[in-house]
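Morning. Coffee machine broken again, so started the prediction first thing and wrote up yesterday's gels while waiting. Chain of 323 residues, entered below exactly as on the submission form.
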Amino acid sequence: MVTSFVILILGFAALVWSADRFVYGAAALAKNFGVPTLIVGLTVVAMGSSAPEMMVSASAALAGKTDTAVGNAVGSNITNILLVLGITALLRPLTVSSMTLKREMPLVLLVSVAAWYIFSDNYFSFAEGVALIIGFVVFIAGLVIISIRAKNQADDPFVSEACDDVPDNVPTKSALFWLVIGMVLLPISSHFLVGSAVDIAKFFGLSDLVIGLTIIAIGTSLPELAACIAGVLKNEDDLALGNIVGSNIFNILAVLPLAGIINPSIIDPSAANRDALIMIAATIALIAMSLSFRGTRRINRVEGGLLLVAFLVYQGYIFNQVA
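Came back before lunch.
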C-alpha cells in the first residue's frame, strides 16, 4: 500500500508538470504559426488546467472505471469552487469585473444541470457523450467569436490577462520539444495515477465514484489552485476566477464526455442523487458571490471561509457514508 501512495504522489506531480509543458508548447507553437494571441489565450491556455482531468478520465474509462471518470469531472468542479476558490478568497478578496466571466457564469450552471440530467437515469451513453463534445465545440467557437467582435475586448481584464499568459518568442523547435514531452508523459502519468488510486480504493473499501470525487479530484485540481494563487499574488483577480469558471465548463463539456464515449455504462446512482446536486449548489453559490448588476463585486474572506467549510463538510459526509 505504501508503494501505491508513492506512485500516486509521483503520478500527480508528473501529471501536473507534463500538463504545464504540453500547454506551454502548444500555445507557443500555435502563436508561431500565426494563430492570434486572443484565440490562443482563450482556448489553449484556458483549457490547459483541465488537461490532467482529461487524461485521468480517459485512462479511467479505458480501464473500465466509468464511475471514477465521472467522479473526477464532477469532483473537480466541486473542488474548484469550494476548495480552490475558498483558499484563494481567504488569501485575498477577489474583485470580479470581467464581462466575459459574468457572461460565462450562467453557462457553468447550465452545463452542471445538463450533467445532472445525464446522470438521472443512472446510465451514461455514447450519444450523451457526443452531445457534450458538440456543446464544447460550440462553446469554444462562440467564445472566440464574441471576444473578437467585442469592441471593448482590450478593456476586459480577463481577456487581457489571458493573452498575457501566452508564451512569446519561443523557438519553434523548443515549442515542439515541450509539446511532445507533454503528449508522452500525460497519458503515462495518468495511467499510473489511476492504477494506484484504484489499488488504494480497494484497500480502504472505497467505491470507484468516491475515489474519483476525493483523492483524484483534489489532485487534478492542483493546477487550478496554483494558477489562482499566482493570479491573486499578481493582482489578476479575473484571471484567477476565470481559471475556475473555464475549468468547470471544460470539465463538463470536454472531460466528462470521455467516460460516455470510451466506456458507456451504468453509473453509481449517487452521482445524480448527491454529487451533481452538490455541484449545482456550489455553482449557484459562486454566481451569487460573483455577480453584481451595479458594477464590480468582491468575493470576500468570509465567503471564502464558508466555501472551504462546505468542502470539508462534503468530504466528511462522503467518507462517513463509506464507513
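The mean pLDDT is 82. Going to sketch it on the whiteboard this afternoon.
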